[in-house]
């Protein structure tokens, strides 16, 4: 396979900023990937997400294979055409969501059989099928290896078993992926919060050789401090020349802490899910628009933003929409949050380029302590 | 009061097309008013509704007085500023919805007391309070008289009583409205399907003198034929020089039949409500996107439209969104339906101007018979 060119333009401590060049366009790093779980960035049109500054979104193999079905997406032209997002897409492998959402799952060396949480129908995911779905049917720009991700806390031997099967599935994923000119495959380091397991996982995957390396199995129940310690132990083991992706993270302060440790890519459900539940992310943390103190607040969420949802609507109006359960409230808050996260990443990149990243990190740490 | 200039540019039989000039901009007639019930055109941003061709939207006094409260809207700058719709707004008087939605209502000569369907709080609506809410607090461009509208079928003496009290409330509404330079007040003809009641109601209101005349009490349970017979009997009694507004109507064929009888303005919940329930209006009637026959249909809803929701998304994708209960499906179908209705009205206006309205009417009748 041919790894996408990854250019690092500036570093500040372990933090780095650059561009991952894909055939569908550049991904500026550090990058936050907005979720397009079921083939839609929930509540938003693709143009709204693009105008908010997003270079790449993340699709979920588990959801899409169940509905509308991966073969159907392929017949309809692939995921980019189906959802009208012509820019880069990364897909997860389905491994994480099979474990968190599916019913009656049975895991063995081959893969996982399970029943759909939607209609109870039976399905199988193996490394080979996951890659077929991601790369051949959905036509993702970046596919992820199939893996098993245990929720934490978990007994060490359980984490060790999952880490080892994930390594064998990584090799099978790579073999199934084969050589491709315009698509990439990322590996996933597992090992929970156990330093030795993380090391053996990372070393084996790097020896195998992938286009990028993800850190999986965090943001699944461990503490903030445990997450940072695990990153401290893991990131230095990953090749500096390839992108590093911390899966499922997170709050702004988590993202910035991980950037400080050399991570380049992130994804998280927070901005879109919070938006659907009446929350808006601001520089001072999340606020709940349902709160009565916003009932006559004529200020917008962020008058310095060029996102219409952030700049043009009063908090009083958003309060009214949220209190009334109006769809427009979910649309506008989702849009604002997606834009807020993209603006955060733009500030992260600018701070690294200007050698001011430590100041930004300290400010976010202070905000999180308040 | 100063009636807004109403210019009739062309007629074709009883149908007419023209422009009602308001200080907030022209309303091209025949006009369809999209509902902005609770201060939001459900699921849509104001810019989307405007770009779909809407000149005017309709706000509901009943909903807005309960939440966020009319005094609050006034403190926030009035309804136009609150919901970011700087173009004309017509408000209903609350009379219709008090009768259909509120609990424990008690009606006497003074007005109606009732309890909120949201929180059970006690409220009163009188002609004077309704006008205060509409014209002073919400700052509607066009206010409607306070009226009582019985559901049909109803005993004749019940309809007669409601018609008579509505006449007395019309006079009180007019007195409360007083003389205003930049706002108008419309009367509402009642009388159910009874020709004599309609005549006495219309004659009394015209003698009183209003800026426009609505036909209320239809689309409340009577048949399509009864509605048309009532229009035949009522519209000719209304002054040709002022706008005529058929309240709560309706399906495309109902609208075009009423235009053929000389009606200029309409409102209806159908396009937005259908959109939230997975239905798209097309020239061949409504279609339900949930239907499996759309699962792999790559055609858009209307490739000739310049509304992105109609033109850019495949039916297959809309089917997936609707089946998955995704908010974006509700957004896109609402937007498409609003645009479809506005395009219908544009075609009605063009057909009248070109003297081809009879052909359009016949085509719609034929479609409705199929």
Look up the CATH topology of the largest domain in chain A: TIM Barrel
Kindly report the name of the CATH homologous superfamily of the largest domain in chain A.
Answer: Queuine tRNA-ribosyltransferase-like
Could you tell me which chain pair has the largest interface and how many residues each side has?
Answer: A-B, 39 and 39 residues
What oligomeric state is this? homodimer
Strand content of chain A: 15-25%
**CATH class assignment of the largest domain in chain A:** Alpha Beta
Strands ordered across the widest β-sheet of chain A: 6-5-4-14-13-12-11-10
Alpha plus pi helix count of chain A: 15
Task: Output the keywords.
homodimer, 370 residues, alpha/beta, TIM Barrel, 2 domains, three-stranded antiparallel β-sheet, 15 helices, 16 strands
Description:
Two copies of one chain form a homodimer. The termini of chain A are far apart. Chain A folds into two domains: 6-268, Alpha-Beta Barrel (TIM Barrel); 275-361, no CATH class. Chain A contains 15 helices and 16 strands. In chain A, a hairpin with a 6-residue loop joins strand 8 and strand 9. With 370 residues, chain A is an alpha/beta fold. Chain A is globular. The A-B interface holds A 38-45, 47, 67-68, 72, 75-77, 82-84, 276, 295-296, 298, 308, 312-314, 316-317, 319-321, 323-324, 326-328, 330-332 and B 38-45, 47, 67-68, 72, 75-77, 82-84, 276, 295-296, 298, 308, 312-314, 316-317, 319-321, 323-324, 326-328, 330-332.
